[in-house]
Amino acid sequence: MLPFSQPKRHLAGLLLLVRGDARGLSVFDISDEGLARSFSAYLWTLPVIAFYGIGSWLVERGGTPGLGHPAAAMGGSLSFAFKFLLNEAAGIVLPILLLSLASPLLTVRVLLRTLIVTWNWSALVYLPLVHLVAAPFFLMNLQTWNLASLAVVVLALIGAGVALFALQWHLLTTVVGGDSRIRLLILLILLLSPLAMLPLRTHLSS
Asked: Is 118 exposed, middle or buried (0-12, 13-18, 19+ CB in 10 A)?
């Protein structure tokens, strides 16, 4: 069982960094072991991701997953689960991979481990935020929504995006400092790189 002290301690460190207190960096272990352990942060987000995935699956099944031949239903469920997990894994790996490739050009190679470790632990905040706000899109068919309900959800998504950008910007200001253009490029890589997954998402959902 994962020790609850790990996310609690790292959330406290993230809060210090967001507030501009560099002492928060002392919480994060950037050794090989610490870098590997930082990926365990994603395990704590699994309940929210599962909730999001179940909602998506219900919509794909038309809200009636029990209909149809049992073997066909099981095959469709396994296929959906594989596609969903592949998308989620790619959304985690791609930002880190692109940041690693771009770090020499951005002159932040010396900070790469710190950036990856803090980004991974910040998943405790940003992944639940993104999935919980986006979940209503998959809990019912959008065609049945009235304009007011849809507007509320869209505004919530925009608000979540702004909050995520602001939190990560303050964190990078403390971790990276220096030229704000470098920080902006790092943030764009981390936040927008999942958009590169859209063609794959479209293909997998077809």
From this structure: buried
Q: How many CA atoms lie within 13 A of 88 on its CB side?
A: 21
Q: Is 63 left (phi over 0), alpha (psi -120 to 50) or beta?
A: left
Regarding pTM above 0.85, the answer is: no
Domain membership of residue 12 as a residue range: 5-205
How many Å apart are CA 105 and CA 90, to the nearest integer? Answer: 23
Q: How does pLDDT run across 63-82, given as a tens digit for each residue?
A: 544 444 444 445 567 877 88
Say if residues 57 and 80 touch (Cβ distance below 8 Å): yes
Q: How many domains does the chain have?
A: 1
Query: Which residue, among 63, 71, 116, has the nearest Cα to 92 in the 3D structure?
Result: 116
C-alpha to C-alpha distance for 59 and 37, rounded to whole angstroms:
35
Q: Looking at residue 72, what is its pLDDT?
A: 43
